[in-house]
Amino acid sequence: MSSRHLTSSDLNMLGRLLGSARQHPRDEERETAAAKFLLSLFLAGETEEATLRAALASSEMRLTIEKQMHNFREGMSGTVH
User: Shortest CA distance to 51 belongs to which of 21, 17, 22?
Assistant: First the structure.
């Protein structure tokens, strides 16, 4: 696997994508899951903004986010507050 460094342009693009997907009221867990999803695609070599935007909007991505949110909540239920 080759190393991929994020440039300021890359970060700006990812920020635009996440900003356009943001819902109101804000859901931090969902936004975190979406950021992880986008970053995983980007680091896997998918760097086209239009393709990433489509992936973010896809139902598959929504399912992935829901699964990650469920796993996150399950992990939190075992922690001491």
Answer: 17
- What tokens were used for 59? 């139902």
Question: How many domains does the chain contain in total?
Answer: 1
Residue 16 domain-assigned (yes or no): yes
Q: Are 65 and 33 in contact (CB under 8 A)?
A: yes
Q: SS3 for 65?
A: helix
Identify the pLDDT of residue 1.
43
Q: pLDDT digits over 6-57, tens only? A: 899 999 999 999 888 787 788 888 888 888 889 999 999 999 999 999 988 8
DSSP-derived letter for residue 31 is: H
Owning domain of residue 22? 8-77
Instruction: Report the amino acid identity of residue 6.
Output: L
Q: Is 3 domain-assigned?
A: no
Structure tokens at 37: 């999803």
